[in-house]
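Figure 2 data, in text form.
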Amino acid sequence: MRAVITVIGKDMVGILAKVSTTCAAANANIIEVTQYVLREFFAMVMLVDLEKMNCELSEFREDLRRNAEDMTIHVMHEDIFNSMHRV
């Protein structure tokens, strides 16, 4: 079971650290990360493994949003992501 995490906001020091620390606390393994800095904006997409996570997905989602205060963060279960992006 995996999830896609997207993070968008103004570029600042520590964004990746905040998100990855929250993932580590929930025991969500980061499988892949792509990030971009476009002038003053930051964008990141992460694929995380939820198999050994120690909390519910809803709690994990709220922790991510709480810990990255000035960012827009979305967490979407892989099944929902795949269903939305089927051609």
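Caption note: The CA atoms of residues 21 and 67 lie 9 Å apart.
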